[in-house]
Amino acid sequence: MWLQKEIRLSAKARGFHLVTAEVVRELPELADFNVGLAHILIKHTSAALTLNENADPTVRDDFGRFFNRLVPENEPYYVHTDEGPDDMPAHLKSSILGSTLSLPITHGRFNLGIWQGIYLCEHRNYGGERTLLVTLQGE
């Protein structure tokens, strides 16, 4: 069985946000899969997805501080600056973290580790809603 669906995540402030529950809420069809894979693509170039710590929110804060130091704004060598000082760094951060996740499905649920959750990595100050394309395959 195959299913492909676009879902929208609510607008988030710049930062790293745990969105596992929001994604699952938008995918009631997940319950129809006993075993399979979920492929999730974020359809934006200035935000990313990653899988990491789901319990302690300070981890997400540390992610933000790290990536803002790793890829700072207003570097003199940036040429792509028309959309503001957060835009080019957002593209770089998105490429570093990635735009897709592949997650196993077992008994109608994402089969994640006990401390794992899906992060929306919002790199723009005002990114707005984000669209995910989710492809489920399995039986």
TrEMBL record:
It holds the Pfam family YjbQ. It comes from the Bacteria. InterPro entries: UPF0047_YjbQ-like, YjbQ-like_sf. Belongs to the UPF0047 family. This is Secondary thiamine-phosphate synthase enzyme.
